[in-house]
Design brief:
Blueprint lengths: L7 E5 L2 E3 L4 E6 L14 E5 L2 E4 L4 E6 L6 E4 L2 E4 L7 E6 L4 E3 L2 E3 L3 E6 L4 E3 L2 E3 L4 E6 L4 E3 L2 E3 L3 E6 L6 E3 L2 E3 L3 E6 L5 E3 L2 E3 L3 E6 L5 E3 L2 E3 L6 E4 L4 E3 L2 E3 L4 E6 L4 E3 L2 E3 L3 E6 L3 E5 L2 E3 L4 E6 L3 E5 L2 E4 L5 E3 L4 E5 L2 E4 L4 E4 L5
Parallel strand pairs: 1-4, 2-5, 3-6, 4-7, 5-8, 6-9, 7-10, 8-11, 9-12, 10-13, 11-14, 12-15, 13-16, 14-17, 15-18, 16-19, 17-20, 18-21, 19-22, 20-23, 21-24, 22-25, 23-26, 24-27, 25-28, 26-29, 27-30, 28-31, 29-32, 30-33, 31-34, 32-35, 33-36, 34-37, 35-38, 36-39, 37-40, 38-41
Antiparallel strand pairs: 41-42
């Protein structure tokens, strides 16, 4: 345990095995109790190995915002094959976590009311979540996720983190935003995840410039939320590229190719879909069904075998200045306004 202010400490090349609560606990590092300005050089925890039992963590950090803590090149694993324990538990702190490996754990890093920088880490076979951000901010960048469930979970009404330039391979979902007030998910790669990004329950993130390929279900799922979906590339998915259900996002500048359905709007969902490119869908370019509502404006939709647009009964669709081409019939229609 490392309590106190004005501390300078380096913890390197140790092995921590099956500690009941935490291998290392860090409290109030680098904070002057009077001025609340940083003092000392803080704590560096590097090149250590943590074997974590159930209901415990490798490193527990509660040292206040403005602290100076670096965790680098550490390895965190469970003490069993049952995928238990938490690699790092971070509360009301802003540490840097770089170059670490998290394997066979329930959760790699859990943060609450925190603002960490998490960059260049490897998350493998976590049963629950690679990184869980609860009511916090922070920057999650250039990490590699091979999680069986969720790569990054963003939850809580005050959550507004940036998830940038990460790679998500396999697993149930890459990123899940649940009741999150904001957040930016930008320039990530999603390869063969079941679902790429889930936006649920009043979330309002910006999802931009991501690359999705071979998703098992929807690459982006919007349910009960708002948000902006822009400039994403979604290809070769086995279901919808973008699935909007009881949600009201703004969808613009995306490129969807070779998916089962390009964009689907259903169950009281209402979306503005503008200036997207949708090509080569297996079932339909755009589907509006089950009470859904959509305005399609200035989109480019080109299909070979599937209908460009399907609108079911009890659904509403406004078409304005779209360019729609059904290649097998070799014609193109310009839509000005139809309802």
């Amino acid at each position: 345990r490392c309590p106190g202010r004005d501390i300078s400490l380096s913890v390197t090349e140790n092995t921590f095995v099956a500690n009941t609560n935490a291998g290392i606990a860090v409290d109030d590092v680098g904070l002057d109790p009077n001025s609340q300005h940083t003092s000392g050089t803080g704590v560096a925890i590097a090149d250590n190995s943590f074997v974590v039992p159930p209901m415990a963590s490798g490193i527990d950090v509660h040292c206040g915002l403005g602290s100076k803590l670096l965790a680098a090149n550490n390895t965190f694993t469970s003490d069993s094959t049952s995928l238990t324990g938490v690699g790092m538990n971070v509360t009301e702190s802003d540490p840097e976590v770089r170059g670490c490996s998290f394997q066979t754990l329930a959760t790699g890093i859990f943060t609450q009311h925190a603002c960490p920088l998490i960059a260049g880490n490897d998350f493998k076979t976590t049963s629950s979540v690679g990184i869980h951000v609860s009511d916090g901010q922070g920057h999650i960048e250039k990490n590699d996720f091979h999680c069986s469930d969720t790569g990054v979970m963003i939850s809580g009404k005050s959550s507004d983190p940036a998830v940038v330039s990460n790679t998500f391979r396999g697993g149930f979902q890459g990123v899940c935003c649940r009741q999150a007030s904001g957040g930016r998910v930008n320039a990530n790669v999603f390869d063969r995840t079941e679902c790429g990004i889930s936006m649920l329950s009043s979330s309002n993130p910006v999802i931009s410039s991501n690359h999705f390929q071979h998703c098992g279900s929807a690459a982006i799922r919007c349910e009960g939320c708002q948000g902006v979906l822009e400039d994403n590339e979604i290809s070769d998915g086995h279901a919808e590229g973008i699935f909007i259900i009881n949600a009201n996002p703004y969808v613009t500048g995306n490129r969807l190719t070779g998916n089962d359905v390009g964009i689907s709007v259903a169950q009281c969902g209402s979306a503005v879909i503008e200036d997207n490119h949708i090509f080569g869908s297996l079932n339909s370019g755009v589907v509006v069904s089950d009470g859904g509502s959509a305005k399609l404006s200035k989109n480019h939709i080109q299909e070979w075998l599937a209908p460009c647009i399907k609108v079911s009964s009890h659904a509403t669709c406004v078409l304005e200045e779209n360019e729609i081409a059904l290649v097998r019939r070799q014609h193109c229609r310009q839509h000005r306004r139809h309802q």
